[in-house]
Amino acid sequence: xxxxxxxxxxxxxxxxxxxxxxAMVTTVLLPAARAMADPRExxxxxxxxEERFAWHARxxxxxxxxxxxxxxxxxxxxxxxxxxxxxxxxxxxFVWALFTVVLFIAEPLFVDDWLAARSTKAPAExxxxxxxxxxxxxxxxxxxxxxxxxxxxxxxx
Length: 157
Ligand code: HEM
Hints:
By secondary structure, the protein is mostly helical. It has helices at residues 2-34, 39-75, 87-121, 123-152. The chain has one domain. The radius of gyration is 18 Å and the shape is elongated.
């Protein structure tokens, strides 16, 4: 069972790395960007920092997905996806899929161009929208972390 212990350790490392970064962007970077006197400057700062963090999030997402899939295959957890008290298994895959689509498909394909266009037209509104979307992603992630950590360690729902 050392392989499962290693998979859990890597899984938790990936989640700390990734969701910790999402929390930082949501609660520190975006409010700081919105507080800048010139919203265009704020959006430019957000884009510079987020561009670098996106590579961290992509790597952490891959590690979380690979370690999670390994555990599902080895432990034979597929049937539990249909058991209501294991809702947190479905929530993990949902949150993972959401971030994967944004980080690997939407951002490179059109979000970057859209942000560049909005940075001159409506920077303050764009920052507000980004902050709201990040709060939704963070709240979903926190509920999932709490549900998965409690559920995987014996909490009976
Ligand atoms: C494709 C994506 C993912 C898969 C396949 C997956 C799968 C798993 C599996 C199989 C476990 C072990 C469950 C058990 O021991 O019964 C687990 C644990 C856990 N996962 Fe995920 N997961 C994924 C994504 C995520 C995400 C996105 C989060 C957080 C937002 C997350 C947070 C956790 C936590 C906190 C644990 C509990 C670790 C522990 O205390 O043992 N996982 N995951």
